[in-house]
Amino acid sequence: MILYPKTQKPSELGSHLCENRVDRCSIKFEPIGDIPERPNYHRQSGELKQTKVLFPEYKDIYAQVQQQNLMRLDKAWQRWMVPDKTGKPGGRPRFKKSGGLRSFTFPQTNSEKAGAHIIGDNLKLSKIGVMPVVVHRPIPDGFTPKTCTLIKKADGWYASIVIEDASVPSPLSLDTHYQVAHKLCEKYDLIGLEDINIKGLAKTRLAKSILDAAWGQFSQILEAVAVKRGNWIVKVNPYGTSQRCSGCGKNVPKALSVRTHECPHCGTVLDRDHNAAINIKNLALNAVGLTVSACGSKRGYSACEAGIFICEEKKLTLYR
């Protein structure tokens, strides 16, 4: 959701960007003294109260906004000091020029202790005031505003609101992923999943769905939990799993928009993802030496008795 203020309060909004602050001093002529430990977010956040005593103008900036800026700074330093998985560090943080910081965030919106409140066609910001806004899109029913980021652009100020559906658990939650991984490994000895090219899909129109589901993160967690618990994880080639009939093995081409698999050869009718899941399960079983016939049965057992399980992750199939 994007909000565009009809009237701005440049002085109040600009003060939150700290455009007129001096960003450096001479270490030779103005020594800062000994630093007992490396500065980090938690230490600097704890010193904000003393900062407001030394610089009274900081009292006019909402406390959580200052904390969010410290988090930005801490992340920038961490990216530079801690190498990524390839062993390469991020770029060295640089001082922002005057006016270079174009946004600031209120981490809570429309809650009891929030600094930002959406009231009809008005936006109320702590330490700034109330201003009328043009609502670009209404907030859908059932969704709750979570954060509010004010952005300064050439034609004025905008507010970007992050919303959340409280009925849907966050797919990016590490705790949720670990809980699901342990439940799956507790119930199933062998887990088969598609060996998806996450980086490749992230460059397609499916990028948002792939990243929102955090499929790569969940796969890594699932593999780690499986190794620890002695389970098998089998990654299979995803090519053709949606097009091949799980009943007879014949190829049944269909567009991505077609969500039902209907085989003209054997009459099998299944949800597209259900059909693909059975194929993935059969490929995983074959990979470990358990031959599965084209109709999905194993050593005289039906596909159901063989242990088909359709997970919420759709393309995840399991066997026990």
What integer value in Å does the Rg equal? Answer: 27 Å
Question: DSSP strand (E) fraction?
Answer: 15-25%
Model regions low in confidence, pLDDT < 50 over at least 5 residues: 295-320
Outline, from the CA principal axes? elongated
Number of strands: 12
Helical/strand content category: alpha+beta
Helix content estimate: 25-40%
Instruction: Give the helix tally.
Output: 10
- Give the termini separation: 45 Å
Mean pLDDT: 77
Q: Give the ordered list of helices and strands.
A: EHHHHEEEEEEHEHHHEEEHHE
Report the biggest beta sheet as strand number plus sense, adding barrel if it closes: 7 strands, antiparallel
Strand order of the largest sheet: 2-6-7-1-5-4-3
Compact summary:
With 320 residues, the protein is α+β, with helices and mostly antiparallel strands.
Compile the SSE list and pairings.
Blueprint: E1 2-5, H1 10-15, H2 41-46, H3 48-54, H4 63-81, E2 103-106, E3 116-119, E4 122-125, E5 129-135, E6 143-153, E7 156-165, H5 174-187, E8 190-194, H6 198-201, H7 207-213, H8 215-229, E9 232-236, E10 260-262, E11 269-271, H9 272-287, H10 303-306, E12 316-319
Parallel strand pairs: 8-9
Antiparallel strand pairs: 1-5, 1-7, 2-6, 3-4, 4-5, 6-7, 8-12, 10-11
